[in-house]
Automatic annotation (TrEMBL):
Belongs to the PhzF family. It comes from the Bacteria. It comes from Lysinibacillus boronitolerans JCM 21713 = 10a = NBRC 103108. Keywords: Isomerase. Transmembrane segments: none annotated. Pfam families: PhzC-PhzF. This is PhzF family phenazine biosynthesis protein.
Length: 264
């Protein structure tokens, strides 16, 4: 019997029981994808990240309880936080993660973890009638990235009070649907909610990867170089978003909640 230790990290928050939780497993040996999937099913959080040490850097995979996923912003942030907090990597050093989608880099900046993700261009599209019916209102803007629908609605209250039909979402050929609007809260630029039952996550508490699209979209619209973005899920979370030409920097706080151990 092999024991696997893990840490539970809440990301995009410095408060316990807020933000988006991720489990982080530091592997001393290579595990099969089947084993990693079983571990993710046992740990009751949206995403479990698996880190394996390489010669000078790390490999990284993410699993929901339902499936392996190609990108996970909060799982990457949590993984970097664990490596720094445990002293495995000095905080002044950049961490490189090798993933199925290419390398990801993380830095410790101003007591936050900053990760660089790819930019996801948005192609504007006509709103499908089924999507408008699902929303229950006429959107301001609808676009599609290679992963998601990005939907701007008229105001923050529409997002906060929205009750999605997750069964109806099965008809949409995307990873998820991100609803967004300008914020009415001082110090916050934009708000959003992200729904992704296709990945086994009805609503993501705080979604980082969607900001690879939201960052450039809203910075251009608001004539800003950096955004403060708030997720309006029940747990909530805040991230700092800085778009560049070919990447988007996403920064957020993190806090460790517990250590655990599994027998496999």
């Amino acid at each position: 019997m092999t024991r696997v230790s893990y840490c539970l990290i809440n990301t995009f928050t410095n408060e316990l029981y807020k933000g988006n939780p991720a489990a982080v497993c530091l592997l001393d040996e290579k595990f099969s994808e089947e084993t990693m999937q079983k571990i993710a099913q046992e740990i009751p959080v949206p995403t479990t990240a698996f880190i394996e040490k390489r010669q000078v850097d790390f490999s990284l995979k993410w699993f929901t309880p339902h499936m392996e996923i190609p990108i996970c912003g909060h799982g990457t942030l949590a993984s970097a936080f664990v490596l720094w907090q445990q002293g495995i990597v000095p905080k002044e050093h950049t961490i490189t993660f090798h993933t199925a989608g290419g390398p990801l880099h993380a830095k410790w900046q101003h007591e936050r973890v900053e990760i660089a993700i790819k930019t996801y261009p948005i192609a504007e599209m006509e709103c499908p009638s089924a999507l408008e019916d699902w929303l229950g209102c006429k959107p301001v803007f609808v676009g599609r990235t290679e992963l998601d629908y990005i939907v701007e609605v008229g105001n923050e209250d529409q997002i906060a009070h929205f009750e999605p039909d997750f069964i109806a979402m099965k008809q949409f050929p995307v990873r998820g649907i991100c609803l967004t609007s300008k914020s009415k809260e001082e110090g916050i630029d934009i708000v959003s909610r992200f729904f992704s039952p296709a990945q086994g996550i009805d609503e993501d508490h705080v979604n980082g990867s969607s900001h690879g699209a939201l960052g450039p979209y809203w910075c251009e619209k608001l004539s800003k170089q950096q955004l403060v973005s708030k997720q309006l899920s029940k747990r909530g979370g805040v991230m700092y978003v800085t778009p560049h030409h070919d990447k988007v920097l996403i920064a957020g706080a993190a806090v460790q909640v517990l250590n655990g151990e599994l027998n496999i």
